[in-house]
Structures are given as C-alpha cells and as structure tokens.
C-alpha cells in the first residue's frame, strides 16, 4: 500500500515554505521582432503588438524579441523595485530606459560568470528606484537559442527578498530529498547488489544536476566564477536522465521476460537518448528543445504502458511506478502552464517540476523498497549457509523446541492442524496462540533469513508476543506493541507477521498484518483470500497498523501461512494464482487429508526449497 501520509507531509512542508509573500502579476507587455538598436527603439520607429494571446512566450525559432512595458509607482513616496526575468537559462538581455533625457542601459550575458551580476540571484534581476507617482517605460531585448519568452515580474524590494529566502528554503527541501534518497539507495545497493538500484541512483544524480542547471543554482552555488553557457550541459543531463530512467524501468518492470517487444522498444529509446546526450554540443539548441515537446509525452506514454502491462501481469510494485510517472506528468503540466501564464500562479504551479519529481523519486524508492525484503532474504540466506555449523544447529534446535507450542488448542469449537518445515534443522518461522473461553488468538511470523540466526531471533519474536498479551483481543494494538519491542531488540533484522483473533461469540475474525501474505478462507467450496497491508516489524517504531474484520460461519476452513509455502513455485505470480488451483480439488476432503495432501502437492511442485514453510489450517466445527 502506498504511504500517502508521508507524501502529504512533504507537500504540506513544501507549500508552507513556498507561500508567504504574494506573487505579483506579470506586467502587460508589447513586443516586436524588428531588428533595431536601442536608440532606434527610443525614437519610436518600431511597430509594437500586444502580447495577450502569446502569454509572454514567442516560440522556438525567433533569435530575439524586443518587449516594452511600464514600471509604475502609484504611491506618494519613493519606492525601490526589483524587476525579475524568470529565465535563468536565457542567453542575453539588454535592458534600457530613458531618464533625464538620457538613455540608461544594462546588460546580462548568460555566458558570463555569476560573480559579475549586479544582484546575486539565479535569475536576471534589476533594481529600480521610482520617485512618487513616477512611471518608467522599460525596453528589453531578449536573445535566446531555444524557447524565447519574457516572463517578467515586478516586485517591491522587501517582498522580493522575502520570497527569495523562501524559494531557497523550498528548493533546499527538494534537493535534500533527492540527496537523502540517493544516499539511502546507494547504501541499499551496497548491501543487496541489485542492478535496479544503480540505475535509480544514477537517475537521482542526473535529476539533481538537471534542476541545478535549469534553476540557475549550478553557477550560483557551485561554480560562481565559471564564464560559459551551461545550456549544452543541461541538454546532456536531461537526455542522460532519460537514459537512466529507461534502464531502471527495464530492470524494475522485468519486461525482458514479460513482454520482449516493449523491452526492445524501451531499449531502443535508451540508445536514442544516449546518442542525443552525446550530440547535445552539436545540435542547435532550439532543435533540442523542440524535440523535448515530443520526447516527454512519448516516454511518458511508453513507460506508463509498460508499467500498466507489468502490473496486469502480476508485478504489483509496478503500481508505484505508474503513480510516480503520473505525479511527474501533472507537476510538469502545471509548471508549464503557470510559466506560460495560461493558468493563475499558485504554489503548486510555481514549483510543479520540483513537487512532481519529488513525488516521483519517493514513489520509485518505495517501489524499490518493496523488493528489499526479498533481496535481503536471499543475501542473509547466503550468509547463513556459510556460518551454520553443527554446534549452532544443536543449540538452535533446543531453542526452537522451547519457543514453539508443544500442544494444539483444545477448544471444542475448532480443530487445528500445523505443518512447520524449516529450511535447515531450525528456521525463522514462528507461530503461537492465546486460548480463552470465547476466543482464540493466533500469531504467525517470519523472521528475515533462515537457519540459526533466524531461529534465535524468532525467540525474541515469542517474547514480544507474550509481552503483548494484554492486547490479545485487539490485533492492531498487539502488532503495534510487538513492533515497538522488536525495533529496540532486533539488530538489522525485520519480521513479517500477522495476528488473528477469532471471536466465537460474535463469529468474527479480526486481523492485522505486518507484511505477511494474505490468508485464505474456504466456505461452501468457494475460496477467497484476505489481506491487510502493513510495514514489516522492526523497521519503524511509530508505525500505525490497520485492523480488518470478516464474518465467520460454522464449517469455515481458514489457512494461515508464511511466504515459503508458495515462493519458488511459479515466479512472478501472486499467491492466489498459485494456491487456488491446488486447493480447489481438495475442498471436500476432511481436514487431516486436506492438510496433508495440500502440503504434498506443493512439495511435488517445488524443485528446491529456499525458505522456511509454515501452514496452519483451522476448521470451525459444525454443531
């Protein structure tokens, strides 16, 4: 399940940091494409057009544009203003006006060093002092190889510096998220050596470079004395990002096995993006920017289609992938429409790209995290196989005998069978129960890893379970109490678990899960599975677990199990699609034959065991 609470928290923080000073409207401008000098412009020889329909954007093919607008002080006192051009990537700007019968000119060159700027800001900005009720007509010539636009804003000086401070804090939060996720996933890669993490980390790194270049932070904060245009490096970085996100998608979605055609199509796109990155220093900039108009929708539709196909084929973590691309798409659209003045300026519109990409990388990270448990188990399996020796096995076997129940419940309202098969002589699976007059509480758990170390940690799980006895009638409270205990007691080890409380008086089953597989209910020959999502025990102490309830009937048969029951039988398929066809022919068998025959059928399908196996079946006795 996607933890929307964390994402909403990030968005609230971002909005809080981003709001405050009201963003001024853009000035009403007029424009002309006539090739005239500033002196000729002042003489009034140019023919001007209003920019209402163009919304301050003039396309990709014009080399320059002249714009003019009025800067007005409506107050009866002298006011300091800041004129900001929200285009850190612009090539050149010539700004001028008439004052006291003389012309005043200021120039901006995107290829010059940041230290040469009049005001140290990532965008071209200019300071004006206007006398009471004074109006100045400002003339600006903008030159750019790429999209030509004039996104001006006129600020009062105090409002500008207040907004600038909030902008830096908001962007600091954004870069902090990117670098935190980069470091976190690098550490995971060191542990699990999964190739998807490499591509994801490279994507995060190029994403941070992209926005540092696009937002003007690269020169401002990293190389303030660098005297060259960063535009070609931006194009290299953007195409490199698309290359790495394509490679990540190929690995994550497992398309080579699921759909070879989509795999080849994305691989071909990756090669094309790599070639574009290499050629970015040669191809004209406006051509590259126009190509992005088609590239982004193409890659969006391609990867969304691949993610949807992968999800339909059973790769459930692809749902995170789909949400990630959707949030990025929404963010980019709002950002583009806001910059084009087609929609009112809002916090989400102003920071659409940052919010969209932040959501995207968080969801990508969550998708990778869902695979972490299985990767950790494989890694721990290898370590355990090297360290397991006869003396440890003997010790662990004795511990195992003490922590598992030595009898089954004697309640006349149900009958219970248990199969417990550790991968080695001992294992990390665990089950136990509380029995009382009007109910039964059952815990089933799986410590990551196998063998001696997992068996030792399963004894800690038993302690956590017994210490939580006061919550035996409330599954979510019991699981929560166990989680808090295990967060303090386990070291670099996690536990999947589920607790089930059967209320015989109301004939209800209450349950709460921490990453455990769904359980199965058989009623009147019909088979159904139930799941309650939750974080693994031992990961985060303050996690709030859910609780669900279903109605029971006499004659119901319920199956509880760990993931070892179905893993390695049919890769990439869900538990339901593996187990239901094997259970259906057995539903009419008595409980003992059903239990034995099901275990035998699954064992015959399993070529090699890679995990501990626990199966608990409960029949509610008919009167």
From TrEMBL:
The chain crosses the membrane at residues 168-190, 197-218, 233-253, 265-285, 291-312, 319-337. The keyword S-adenosyl-L-methionine does not apply. Gene3D superfamilies: 2.60.40.2380, PPM-type phosphatase domain. Residues 411-620 form the PPM-type phosphatase domain. InterPro entries: 7TMR_DISM_rcpt_extracell_dom1 (IPR011623), 7TMR_DISM_rcpt_extracell_dom2 (IPR011622), Bact_Sigma-Reg (IPR052016), PPM-type-like_dom_sf (IPR036457), PPM-type_phosphatase-like_dom (IPR001932). Pfam families: 7TMR-DISM_7TM, 7TMR-DISMED2, SpoIIE. Keywords: Hydrolase, Membrane, Transmembrane, Transmembrane helix. GO terms for molecular function: phosphatase activity. This is Serine/threonine protein phosphatase. It comes from Leptospira kanakyensis.
């Amino acid at each position: 399940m996607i933890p929307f609470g964390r994402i909403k928290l990030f968005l609230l923080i971002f909005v809080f940091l981003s709001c405050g000073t009201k963003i001024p409207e853009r000035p009403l401008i007029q424009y002309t494409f006539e090739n005239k000098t500033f002196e000729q412009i002042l003489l009034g020889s140019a023919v001007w057009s209003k920019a209402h329909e163009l919304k301050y954007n003039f396309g990709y093919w014009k080399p320059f544009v002249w714009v003019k607008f009025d800067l007005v002080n409506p107050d009866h006192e002298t006011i300091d203003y800041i004129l900001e051009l929200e285009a850190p990537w612009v090539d050149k700007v010539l700004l001028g006006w008439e004052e006291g019968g003389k012309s005043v000119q200021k120039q901006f060159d995107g290829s010059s060093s940041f230290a040469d700027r009049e005001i140290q800001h990532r965008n071209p900005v200019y300071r004006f002092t206007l006398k009471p009720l004074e109006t100045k007509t400002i003339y600006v010539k903008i030159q750019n190889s790429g999209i030509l636009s004039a996104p001006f804003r006129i600020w009062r000086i105090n409002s500008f510096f207040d907004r600038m401070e909030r902008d830096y804090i908001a962007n600091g939060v954004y870069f902090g998220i990117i670098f935190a996720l980069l470091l976190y996933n690098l550490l995971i890669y060191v542990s699990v050596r999964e190739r998807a993490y490499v591509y994801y980390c490279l994507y995060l790194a190029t994403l941070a470079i992209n926005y540092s270049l696009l937002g003007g932070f690269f020169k401002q904060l990293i190389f303030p004395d660098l005297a060259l245009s960063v535009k070609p490096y931006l194009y290299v970085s953007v195409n490199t990002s698309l290359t790495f996100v394509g490679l990540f998608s190929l690995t994550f979605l497992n398309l080579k096995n699921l759909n070879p055609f989509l795999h080849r199509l994305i691989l071909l796109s990756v090669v094309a993006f790599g070639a574009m990155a290499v050629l970015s220093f040669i191809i004209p900039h406006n051509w590259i920017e126009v190509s992005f108009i088609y590239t982004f929708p193409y890659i969006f539709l391609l990867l969304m289609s691949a993610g949807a196909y992968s999800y339909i084929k059973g790769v459930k973590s692809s749902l995170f992938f789909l949400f990630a691309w959707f949030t990025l798409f929404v963010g980019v659209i709002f950002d583009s429409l806001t910059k084009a003045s087609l929609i009112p300026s809002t916090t989400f519109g102003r920071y659409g790209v940052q919010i969209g990409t932040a959501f995207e990388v968080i969801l990508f990270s969550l998708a990778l995290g869902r695979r972490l448990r299985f990767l950790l188990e494989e890694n721990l399996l290898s370590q355990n196989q090297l360290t397991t020796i006869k003396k440890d096995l003997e010790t662990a076997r004795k511990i195992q005998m003490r922590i598992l129940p030595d009898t089954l419940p004697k309640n006349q309202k149900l009958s219970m069978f248990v199969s417990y098969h550790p991968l080695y002589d001992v294992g990390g699976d665990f089950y136990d129960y509380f029995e009382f007059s009007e109910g039964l509480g059952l815990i089933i758990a799986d410590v990551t890893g196998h063998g001696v170390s997992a068996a030792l940690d399963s004894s800690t799980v038993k302690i956590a379970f017994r210490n939580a006895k006061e919550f035996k009638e409330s599954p979510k409270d019991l699981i929560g109490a166990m989680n808090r205990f295990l967060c303090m007691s386990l070291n670099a080890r996690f536990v999947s678990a589920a607790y089930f409380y059967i209320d015989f008086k109301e004939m209800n089953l209450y349950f709460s899960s921490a990453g455990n597989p769904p359980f199965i209910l058989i009623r009147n020959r019909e088979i159904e599975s139930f799941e309650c999502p939750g974080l693994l025990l031992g990961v985060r102490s303050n996690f709030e677990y859910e609780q669900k309830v279903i109605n029971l009937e006499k004659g119901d048969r319920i199956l509880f199990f760990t993931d070892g029951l179905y893993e390695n039988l049919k890769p990439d398929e869900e538990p339901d699609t593996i187990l239901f066809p094997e259970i259906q022919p057995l539903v009419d068998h008595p409980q003992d034959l059903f239990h034995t025959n099901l275990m035998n059928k699954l064992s015959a399908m399993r070529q090699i065991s890679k995990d501990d196996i626990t199966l608990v079946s409960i029949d509610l006795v008919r009167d």
